[in-house]
Structure formats: C-alpha cells, structure tokens
Write a structure and sequence with these properties.
Layout lengths: L1 E6 L3 E3 L4 E9 L4 E9 L6 E7 L5 E3 L7 E6 L4 E6 L8 E9 L15 E2 L3 E6 L1
Parallel strand pairs: 2-11
Antiparallel strand pairs: 1-3, 3-8, 4-5, 4-9, 5-6, 7-8, 9-10, 9-11
C-alpha cells in the first residue's frame, strides 16, 4: 500500500504562482511514476502532469504546458507541481496519484492506470 498526501493549495490571484506538494509513504519502492490530476466542479478528472521516478521524464497537458513544472525528490518520496501564470480555469481540486510498475514503463495520462490517490488539495484562482 502507498499513501499519498497533498498540500499547498490555496486561494490565489490570476497570474500568481503556487507550489503543490505530494508526500508518499508506505511501499513506495513499487511506485515508478507520480502524477497530478485535477477536477473542477461539474467536470471530469483530467491529467495535468506526470513524472517518471527513475529518469525524471515528464509529460504535461496542453493546457498547462509552459506554465506548470513537475518535479520529484526520490529520496524524500515527494512530488511537486510548480504552477505559474495561474488562470481562473486552473481552479480545481488537485490530486496526486501514484502508478505502480516497472521503472521504465510509459507514463500514463489515464486516471484508471494510477493505483493510489491522495485526498486532493483545493486551488482556487480568482480573476
């Protein structure tokens, strides 16, 4: 089992920067990738970004590319999402997720492929 805890979400202004944190605990040795997803009210949960632990390979949704940066600290079992140039449409509950598999497995953008999830941290961006 892997437990995930996100924090760092808050109310922000458009154009602000914000950093989200995800702490993993438990059997983290089986985790090969960490992902961030978000869900806005009335919308489906969507992929934001993912990073592969072994080499830092990262992917981003088109809507955040160039504004958000994902990173990880394998020693501390942490994942981060650096969010800049925030927009009102970034308002959502942001979830950290962990994918289990081989170290060089492909990053997935599908929420169904992620085995473990945190409770989410709310990001609200006002205009």
């Amino acid at each position: 089992q892997v437990q995930l805890a996100e924090y760092g979400g808050r109310l922000a202004q458009a154009g602000d920067s914000l950093r989200l944190y995800c702490r993993a605990s438990g059997h983290t040795g089986s985790v090969f990738a960490m992902g961030w997803f978000r869900q806005a009210p009335g919308k489906e949960r969507e992929f934001v970004s993912g990073v592969r632990k072994i080499d830092g390979t990262a992917e981003y949704a088109d809507s955040v590319k160039g504004r958000f940066t994902i990173s990880k600290d394998t020693v501390k079992d942490m994942a981060y999402l650096e969010m800049t140039a925030l927009r009102p449409e970034d308002t959502a509950l942001y979830y950290c997720a962990a994918d289990i598999g081989g170290p060089f497995d492909n990053l997935s953008r599908l929420s169904a492929d992620y085995a473990y999830w945190g409770q989410g941290t709310q990001v609200t961006v006002s205009s």
